[in-house]
Amino acid sequence: MGNGSRAALPRVLADELDADWNRVRIAQAVGGDPRYGSQDTDASRSILEFFSLMREAGATARLMLVRAAAGQWAVPASECDSRLHMVVHPANTPPIHLR
Asked: Consecutive sets of 10 residues in the chain, 99 residues long: mean pLDDT of each?
């Protein structure tokens, strides 16, 4: 597996998710297992093919976490935000830490 699949792509996902990079753990899928599709990385294929998908996945996950926290706090999701591994609400509600 190339550099992108172990470093760049997880970083793109973590950045969009607003995750604390120091808390991120990367687990490599088993190579050649048909459940995971092609893991071909030559010619920087992983970055070319998955950069946008990883950004979208991270942003979608962050939005889901913000909405879940807003539901717990009974406040509009539009009033909540993420901040380095937390979902926050400005009205002094204790932050919800992402696990």
From this structure: 70 93 83 75 74 94 95 93 90 69
